[in-house]
Amino acid sequence: MPVWRHFVPTNLFNLLCGQMLHYLYPIHTCFRQTLMITISMLNSINLSNLFKYLLAPPLLFVNFFRYFCLPFLFRMLYLIGLGLGDVTDITVKGLETVRKCEKVFLEAYTSLLLNSELDTLEKYYKKEITIADREMVESQSELILDPAAAQDVAFLVVGDPLGATTHTDIILRAIEKGISYRVIHNASIMNAVASTGLQLYNFGDTVSICFWKENWKPTSFVDKIIKNLRNGLHVLCLLDIRVKEIDWSKMVRGKKVYEPPQFMSVNTAVEQILEIIKDREKEDREFLNEDSLCVGIARLGTDGQVIKSGTLKRIATEDFGKPLHSLCIVGKLHPLEGDMLRHFAVDKSDIPVE
Per residue in 278-296, pLDDT tens? Predict the structure, then answer.
């Protein structure tokens, strides 16, 4: 019998080890088994199993590190793209990741997932989902990042996670906090716009068109459009979405009131462009005018998507139905692009034949 057995009763030793195991990590049976093997070896130590005795503590340490330390070292913030259509557009990798995360947030202000309500998403993903509005993402990001320091957190984004600069910002904040992150990509308007027949490598800088207000009518986006057209490049115009935006006129009175949701239509975007261009110099109007070719897009990536091509003047009066809408201003056409635009044309005579 080993000398130490005379001083420490076996039952007490086993009890202490069991209590230690209980407080460290009770759910991992492998760790418990390793500890019990160590106890058994201590009870019967002799020269024949001295090698096993020496090997047991390192084995115990390895299992402790594997099951107790690693899960906390590799907690992750996942930014997951949901695609454009509905709940089933998420990738297999994205779905598997969502289902293993302890917390799930859905970013709901840079875009919206069509044809899928919140309860549909929760049922399909088998997770409770918290809506992350602009205020949470931009001003209260700790509500998303702090949990990611101790558990896996999914941040769901319609389209691709990095399609908006806001999401790059949340990655930088995670890095500052020492939180690991991973991006799971998906389709977005930035690549799905090729459905119009316009080739992706012929696009220039993307432009955002905002809603005008009575005392605020930005026009600089037209300068960017013209710059692209001068270089013969197509222009993708992302149209304004206003969801849960603060009504600052009421905020002045001490009331936090949100404006009703607004989604810019192709028609509104074209009207703003035409109003700006009519006051521009002749040199600018040579590149952008009411006879310039464009493509109106609605609900891209869904079964009910609409694509119509024609002049700005013609597209301004077309009905595109429910949101979400986008607009492309056409630059120099490749013959194949022209063939595709004629397929989508409201009036084929608008599309030049080369």
Answer: 989 889 999 999 999 999 9
Predicted confidence (pLDDT) per residue in 161-208, tens digit: 998 777 888 999 999 999 999 999 999 999 999 999 999 999 999 999
Measured CA to CA in angstroms, residue 350 lies from 245, 346, 347 at distances of: 39, 8, 6
What is the distance between the alpha carbons of residues 172 and 178, in angstroms, rounded to a whole number?
10
Among candidates 216, 220, 221, 242, which has minimal Cα distance to 329? 221
Residue pair 199/337 in contact by the 8 Å Cβ criterion: yes
Mean pLDDT of 221-236: 97
DSSP line for 102-150: SEEEEE-SS---TT--HHHHHHHHTS-EEEE-HHHHHH-THHHHTGGGT
Instruction: Kindly report the backbone phi and psi dihedral angles of residue 321, in degrees, each rounded to the nearest multiple of 5, phi listed first.
Output: 75, -155
Q: How many residues does the chain have?
A: 354
